[in-house]
Model the fold of this input.
Amino acid sequence: MSIAQLTRGRVPAPARRAARRDPLVVAAAAVACAIAVIAVAGPLLAPYDPNQLYVGEVSAPVSLDHPFGTDDLGRDVLSRVLAGAGASVVGPVIVVLLSTLVGTAVAVLSAWFGGVVDGVSTRLVEVIFAIPGLVLAVLAVAMFGKGLVAPVVALSIAYMPIVSRLVRAGARTELGKPYIAALRIQGVGSPTICVRHLLPALLPSILAQATLGFGYAMLDLAAISFLGLGAQPPASDWGVMIAGGQPALLNGAPEQSMFPALLVVVTVLSVNILGARVTSWAEGADR
Done:
């Protein structure tokens, strides 16, 4: 499958038929689309002001007025989940985009030029790879203050070596194939070979890693917010809501922690399922 087919939506007919027959793919796609809509239009869909306190309805159970119940301050949990979807989803997307773009560029340049360029970039990638992402994010928060910007940048740097190592291995294998030598003999320029031939061949691996990276990034950012180092109250970030619902959870009112935690899990699962299926179709079409 070429990069044009993937980017323009020209998925082969067998892949489309397989998608329609696979209920798991259909369900994952529906969930992913719903999460995307909520991330964009969540505040508009919220039935209440997510930060409005409702006296007398503290830690209220699920009801028609409050389908997800209320938290320990009387705020509607459904409204807070909808309003916080944007920050909870956009952060991981930015991490995946930055790490994938930088990691792929470093890997392709390293594999193409080889020699000193490959040696220096590989050593640098290995040094960064040795630092756990959460540790780097905590250090970034310590240096630049609490919030989502520092953790997002730190996790982008931490995930970059994973992408780079994977893509570099694939690029070195691909560059040893006869068609690359033929293109060079024909005088095709390096940028053209890399963009029009090498990157499309690497796209399935990049896509697979991007979907896995999204899941890890969402979990890491939720954990950072849960620890109080990311988004700060009264923000309705899902990690903040999970942390804020701990006291109520111990008192028998799990709603304010349960629903955002469930959305994190469902979002990660749906994206990973779609990524695995699309990658398998792309690899099958290339054979």
